[in-house]
């Protein structure tokens, strides 16, 4: 076996799951460990005019702030030809605005579709004039015949490239197909997708046919199903060596994999066989559709070779409902949902706010009490009668969800009469954008609230607003005492049915029980929670004396 060069594109291809945002410490560790393993090229992301996080832009200054140490590997970025086409012409001014000469990046990869190959000479010559070595990738190779691939290589052989790649965009190639493609001696690089579990086999076939460049990503992280894993390529390559630091990085990416769920499965296998665009199934997998529903979608897609936002949105329209848990037997304030605020029951104040966000037909009150049920029914709201032994409001919502035909369930606690309908909408949008996360809200403390008040849960998040912990104590703290930036929990939540099913239990989890904060059950069960910052006034009713405070606040609005 001849040696080959590994190009790791974890940050570029994996960005389709993270919107090209990655933790800085993780990126540092990734690059160091790949470099120490002997990986030749590390692709940091895109340089693109398209919206996305910092690794969609790969600004030199930003990358230098992250990679502030010596790297032996060559750093690369990718551009997509279609992003620089305006009126069927290359917008050279746009390229010049986005891509400058660089002393950190050595290589630019150009992704091109067959119908765009005529633009390659102009783009490649411009990039080379800026000092870059250039690689060209032709996409969707499984849809091309031998003549079309030859047209591509006839162009690229005149461009002084360091590599000419084929990309199996749909994960549809078999080793026999790869063998035939590499009969063209001008092809010397391959990027494989793992829809049918053949990514590694296809890479080995290409290497045996003379491929000099092979792409991989850590744990296979990449658009749709993902790719051959870099760790497989390192283990197979005679010139590279796995190291313990890389094993630590792999563990961190396995955690991301548990969140975003890339990797081959029967649905991805079907998508590969039928040349269905990988982003369709990625987005469908992250929706709240069941596998049976997704299979029905795939059966009706036929061969959609390009991504169609409108079609996808039509396919995955999700029904959203608000469920308001209203328990009569509150330990601190019995009968709280029926307490009058300005002569109207508190539960109706909350229901009206929910109605403004999703419409009265999508608002449900979940209660164990006939009096509460009668009041909300008379006001025109739907009621789900639940059992008398629900441990928390979310348990009550989980029980009610078994009787409601919906995809997204928003839990608005029945003791938050000052909830802003726009904040409910924020949670819905956050849930749609983060389907693998439970959504919860946070805000600054109200002027009537004390940081030491044990009835107020405080929250601590990471830099991406993922919940780390919630406590009734004043967290985070400083050496001098309480922090000035303490955030409290606001009780609006967003769940999928599956997340509610995983939440249900007959006993509280240890930290949840100790703190008496139900959101901790999700954290303890390994379900990530995304916190949404809300700015409007919010004040929960925990004791009878809170009613007067609410009435006073309502007069101020």
**Oligomerization:** single chain
Low-confidence stretches: none
- Share of helical residues: 25-40%
Fourth CATH level, the homologous superfamily of the largest domain: Aldolase class I
Sketch the major β-sheet.
Answer: 9 strands, mixed
Number of helices: 23
Our Rg estimate from Cα atoms comes to 27 Å
Shape designation: elongated
Nearest-integer average pLDDT? 89
Tell me the CATH topology of the largest domain. TIM Barrel
Number of strands: 23
CATH architecture of the largest domain: Alpha-Beta Barrel
- Any idea of the CATH class of the largest domain? Alpha Beta
Count of distinct structural domains: 3
Distance between the termini: 75 Å
Instruction: Provide the structure class.
Output: alpha/beta
The share of residues in extended strands comes to 15-25%
């Amino acid at each position: 076996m001849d040696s080959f060069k590994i190009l790791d594109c974890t940050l570029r291809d994996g960005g389709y799951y993270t919107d090209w945002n990655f933790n800085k410490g993780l990126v540092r560790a990734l690059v160091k460990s790949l470099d120490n393993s002997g990986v030749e090229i590390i692709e940091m992301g895109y340089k693109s005019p398209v919206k996305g996080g910092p690794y969609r832009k790969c600004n030199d200054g930003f990358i230098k702030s992250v990679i502030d140490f010596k790297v032996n590997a060559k750093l690369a970025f990718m551009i997509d030809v279609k992003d620089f086409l305006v009126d069927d012409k290359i917008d050279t001014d746009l390229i010049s605005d986005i891509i400058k000469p660089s002393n950190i990046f050595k290589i630019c990869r150009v992704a091109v579709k067959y119908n765009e190959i005529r633009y390659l000479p102009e783009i490649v010559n411009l990039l080379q004039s800026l000092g870059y070595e250039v690689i060209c990738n032709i996409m969707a190779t499984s849809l091309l015949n031998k003549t079309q691939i030859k047209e591509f290589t006839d162009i690229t052989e005149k461009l002084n490239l360091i590599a000419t790649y084929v990309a199996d965009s749909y994960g549809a190639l078999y080793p026999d197909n790869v063998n035939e493609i590499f009969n063209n001696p001008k092809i010397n690089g391959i990027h494989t997708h793992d829809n049918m579990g053949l990514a590694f086999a296809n890479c080995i076939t290409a290497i045996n046919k003379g491929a000099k460049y092979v792409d991989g990503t850590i744990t296979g992280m990449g658009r749709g199903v993902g790719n051959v894993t870099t760790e497989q390529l390192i283990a197979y390559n005679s010139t590279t060596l796995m190291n313990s630091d890389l094993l630590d990085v792999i563990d961190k990416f396995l955690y991301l994999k548990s969140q975003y769920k890339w990797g081959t499965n029967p649905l991805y296998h079907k998508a590969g066989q039928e040349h269905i665009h990988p982003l369709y199934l990625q987005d469908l997998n992250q929706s709240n559709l069941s596998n049976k529903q997704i299979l029905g979608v795939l059966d009706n897609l036929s061969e959609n070779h390009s991504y169609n936002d409108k079609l996808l949105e039509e396919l995955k329209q999700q029904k959203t409902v608000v469920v308001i848990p209203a328990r009569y037997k509150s330990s601190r304030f019995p009968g709280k949902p029926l307490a009058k605020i300005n002569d109207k029951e508190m539960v109706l104040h909350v229901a009206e706010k929910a109605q403004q966000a999703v419409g009265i037909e999508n608002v449900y009150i979940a209660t164990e009490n006939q009096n509460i049920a009668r009041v909300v029914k008379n006001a025109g709201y739907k009621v789900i009668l639940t059992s008398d032994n629900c441990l928390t409001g979310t348990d009550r919502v989980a029980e009610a969800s078994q009787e409601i035909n919906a995809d997204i369930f928003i839990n608005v606690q029945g003791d938050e009469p000052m909830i802003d309908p726009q904040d409910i909408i924020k949670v819905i949008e956050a849930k749609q954008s983060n389907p693998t996360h439970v959504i919860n809200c946070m805000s600054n403390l109200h002027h009537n609230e004390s940081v030491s008040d044990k009835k107020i849960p405080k929250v601590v998040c990471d830099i991406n607003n993922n919940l780390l912990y919630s406590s009734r104590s004043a967290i985070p703290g400083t050496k001098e005492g309480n922090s000035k930036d303490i955030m409290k929990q606001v009780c609006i939540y967003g769940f999928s049915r599956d997340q509610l099913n995983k939440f249900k239990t007959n006993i509280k989890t240890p930290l949840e029980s100790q703190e008496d904060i139900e959101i901790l059950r999700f954290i303890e069960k390994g379900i990530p929670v995304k916190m949404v910052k809300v700015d409007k006034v919010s004040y929960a009713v925990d004791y009878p004396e809170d009613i007067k405070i609410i009435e006073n606040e309502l007069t101020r609005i």
